[in-house]
Design goal:
With 824 residues, the chain is mainly β. Helices cover 10% and strands 44% of the residues. Strand 19 (334-347) and strand 20 (356-370) form a beta hairpin. The protein is elongated and about 100 Å long.
């Protein structure tokens, strides 16, 4: 009987361990690493391509005992493996003995007479006749799982003092089946949704039905970050956007200029004869992949594809990206995406031993239904839909509805992170990260901040200290109060601001807001009118600035505003504002004007009513309450404003009408990066003093301010009608990647031009008593800049030159501006 149980034990143990893991390096006959060699388990479709250093890691749940290593022009090798781990193997491939008339193919493959490219052309012809495109309408059930893990965990890491009291988390350490490295799960998110599409209307809608996050249930900021991090993509498109970068798809029509293709094999996959094509980059430093795909021989639809981003790709903070997609066959000819696995390795350095974070997303598609038409209004996006129950489904619901069971490790993450919430050390770490991310420090139901605005400096106030905060009961608060006070140590004056907002109607986002601010501001730092009562320009308190920064204004602003969003991303606003403007440094700067009796007045008193339309298609926001946060800046914006001065209302001084239009559009230009186009136009009808004029915004700081002109001083150009155009193109390293010695630095090129034209009416010149001569750019002003980005991964330097008005006294003919930031 004891022998019987021993046999059972050995059988179970052998079954659990009956998996093959293998890692190693492939070399050529000169002992040089051989990149992009094919490595696979014999008789299966489980395989990969070695990286730039010839390294690979492969794992199979089955007992696959033979590994085949091959590369075109070299003799393939086979090696019998042992069950379990086979690590740090070395393969040396020798050149084939071929007939003299045949040339051994090196790294670059020919574009002519290449059977792989012939197959690729047939994929292009059929790509709109495969999958979901074959039907007018479709519905899919979708399950998505996202997990983050600390990787390269070792004993030295687990013994760090920072983990004191949290040692239990290391019970979850495991080994990746893709990289072979140890990892510690730290976050998991699951979601279920229904996806509807109409190829006739070119519309798609996704309805979220359930969402679960470990330890952070219902936190839309985390969920929005994840959704933005892992955008949807289509491998058949010419370009695939990942981490806001445009990668060449291996199935792209432009692929033959970016990739080498090799027809490596052919085999049956689920009774379908398929070709296996290996691809790898033609050049280093470009945003490309390496890997292979299996394609059907009749429909030329992809059955399976593996994509890995090369380490030489010009992308920051990401050491590795791995994508795997599988397609199922329907009706003997239709190939539909059934599984999409995406893994990224985030790290500060790209060395193998460096620690980082794995980000893994697995998406499963099931239960396809076709040609069930929905009304056109069905695809209309909800303006502000939020169902709290979606984020609080019970465990029974998830057990019955998730598409695949969680592994032991994944189940352990929920328990581990729920326990972590009770550990004070972890809570302190979480609070620190949350504070740095939001800029606010939470104390009960009050947020202190923004902490990054606590210190400033200008010529009038000298050193300026600011303290403020806001009410915060949750990220979806229906109302919020905010205020601050500031003190200048040079003018010895207190300033303050207070505002309140209330979301009256959640469905259409009907919001009423108002407030009052008494402060000092550089009002010539922007063109387009803002109605943020607490808003203050960067120029008002820039710590590092050049030239004279004394042209500041005492502002007393009160505002009452009503806004509504009847259609997603289309906002209508109307506001009434009352403000007084007076110079904050009368000895060096004046806002004086002549009134109708010819007397000089130094204070502007003005009441105004304003109507605005703000349309931002493609914007990504977080939150469903009175305040929302913008996830990224890669969206278009159309803004139209009409303002009417109300003379006599609360002793207001002027009647006028002001029209303003703003348009911003980012344009992805495939192979050549991204172009940002921004234009503003405006005109004021009626007499107005200097305080109400439109000042072309200058930039006297040492830092880049995207909307401002790099070489203009404050109040250098003053207008009552204007038009500006800004063009800035980011090549994302496209040019430097082709230059020896530069390509390894991963630098990125930026070029831009900014132009402005405007005028001032004779009536407005006549009432000017400020002593400042109005200079309008009647002959267009323009400047251009050339920049180098991604210096040390965090720095950008721009060199700017004036193209006109170079002989004007005391102007900057050229300059250098700097920007710091974390970008992929």
């Amino acid at each position: 009987m004891k022998k019987f149980f021993l046999y059972i034990y050995l059988f179970i143990t052998a079954s659990v361990l009956a998996q093959t893991k293998v890692s190693g390096t492939v070399y050529d006959e000169f002992n040089q690493p051989l990149p992009y060699a094919s490595v696979a388990f014999k008789g299966t479709t489980i395989g990969m391509v070695t990286n730039e250093n010839g390294k690979f890691y492969l794992e199979s749940p089955d007992n696959n005992l033979t590994l085949v290593v091959s590369f075109i022009g070299y003799q393939p090798q086979e090696k019998i493996l042992t069950v379990g781990g086979n690590y740090d193997l070395k393969f040396v491939l020798e050149s084939e003995n071929v007939i003299e008339t045949i040339t051994i193919v090196g790294g670059k493959q020919s574009k002519k007479n290449n059977p792989a490219i012939d197959i690729l052309r047939k994929i292009w012809e059929r790509k709109r006749k495969n999958g979901l495109y074959m039907y007018d309408q479709y519905k899919i059930d979708k399950y998505e799982k996202v997990q983050f893990d600390l990787n390269n965990i070792d004993s030295a890491f687990t013994e760090k003092r920072i983990f004191k009291g949290m040692e239990f988390i290391f019970e979850q350490v495991d080994t990746s089946n893709i990289t072979g490295k140890t990892y510690l799960p730290i976050f998991i998110n699951e979601s279920l949704s229904e996806v509807y599409g109409d190829n006739v209307l070119n519309k798609q809608k996704e309805i979220l039905t359930a969402n679960k996050t470990s330890g952070f249930s219902g936190n839309q900021h985390i969920l929005a970050f994840i959704k933005d991090l892992y955008n949807e993509y289509d491998i058949y498109n010419n370009f695939i956007t990942i981490f806001d970068k445009s990668f060449h798809s291996p199935l792209s029509r432009f692929g033959i200029d970016a990739y080498n293709y090799v027809l490596a094999d052919s085999a049956y996959i689920e009774d379908k004869w398929c070709y296996n094509i290996i691809y790898y980059p033609r050049r280093k430093g470009e945003l490309t992949f390496k890997g292979d795909f299996w394609v059907n021989d009749s429909t030329f639809a992809i059955k399976k594809i593996n994509m890995s981003v090369t380490q030489s790709a010009n992308i920051n903070w990401v050491k590795e990206i791995y994508i795997e997609q599988e397609f199922e066959v329907v009706n003997d000819s239709v190939f539909l995406l059934s599984r999409d696995h995406f893994m990224s390795d985030f790290a500060f350095r790209k060395k193998d031993e460096s620690k980082g974070v794995y980000g893994r997303r697995t998406t499963i598609y099931q239960n396809h239904v076709f040609n069930q038409e929905k009304p056109k209004d069905f695809y209309k996006e909800e303006v502000n839909y939020y169902d709290d129950a979606i984020y609080h489904r019970d465990e029974e619901f998830w057990n019955n509805n998730r598409f695949e069971s969680l592994s032991r490790d994944e189940r352990g993450i929920y328990k581990m992170l729920d326990t972590l919430q009770t550990v004070k050390q972890f809570q302190r770490m979480y609070d620190l990260v949350a504070t740095l991310g939001s800029g606010y420090y939470q104390m009960g139901n009050f947020d202190f901040g923004p902490i990054f605005s606590s210190f400033g400096y200008n010529d009038v106030e000298g050193v300026r200290l600011r303290a403020g905060g806001r009410t915060y009961f949750g990220q979806n608060d229906l109302w919020r109060l905010e205020g601050y006070t500031a003190y200048g140590f040079k003018d010895n004056k207190f300033k303050y601001g207070i505002s309140g907002k209330w979301l009256i109607d959640t469905k259409n986002r009907l919001i009423i807001s108002g407030g009052n601010r008494r402060d000092i501001e550089q009002i010539g730092a922007s063109l387009t009118t803002t109605n943020d009562v607490l808003g203050r320009s960067f120029a008002s308190s820039a710590i590092f600035a050049s030239g004279d920064n004394s042209k500041l204004t005492n502002v007393n602003l009160s505002n009452l505003m009503l806004e509504i969003e009847p259609v997603k991303n289309l906002i209508f606003k109307t506001a009434f504002s009352y403000r007084t403007l007076e110079s904050a440094s009368p000895s060096t700067f004046s806002l004086d004007y002549y009134d109708k009796d010819g007397n000089v007045q130094s204070q502007v008193t003005q009441s105004e009513i304003n109507f605005m339309v703000d349309y931002t298609p493609g914007i990504k926001t977080v939150g469903y309450g009175v305040e929302r946060s913008i996830v990224d800046n890669n969206y278009a914006r159309i803004y139209l404003s009409y303002s009417q001065g109300l003379k006599g209302v609360f002793d207001s001084d002027f009647n006028y009408e002001k029209l303003q239009f703003y348009y911003k559009q980012p344009i992805m230009i495939g192979l050549f990066g991204r172009l940002f186009v921004t234009t503003e136009v405006g005109k004021t009808f009626g007499e107005i003093p200097l305080g109400l004029m439109s000042v072309v915004p200058g930039n006297q700081s040492y830092f880049l301010i995207p909307s401002n002109f790099n070489l203009l001083n404050y109040y250098e150009f003053i207008t009552d009608e204007y038009a500006t155009l800004q063009l800035e193109h980011h090549f994302n390293g496209k040019l430097f990647s082709r230059i020896p010695y530069f390509r390894d630095l991963n630098l990125r090129e930026i070029v831009g031009v900014k132009a402005a034209v405007g005028n001032v009416s004779d009536e407005n010149r006549a009432i000017n008593a400020s002593g400042m001569t109005y200079l309008a750019p009647t002959k267009p002003y323009w400047e251009y800049n050339v920049g180098v980005g991604n210096i040390f991964k965090v720095m950008r330097i721009d060199f700017a030159w004036r193209g006109s008005y170079r002989d004007t006294p005391d102007v900057n003919k050229w300059g250098v501006k700097v920007e710091f930031g974390f970008y992929f």
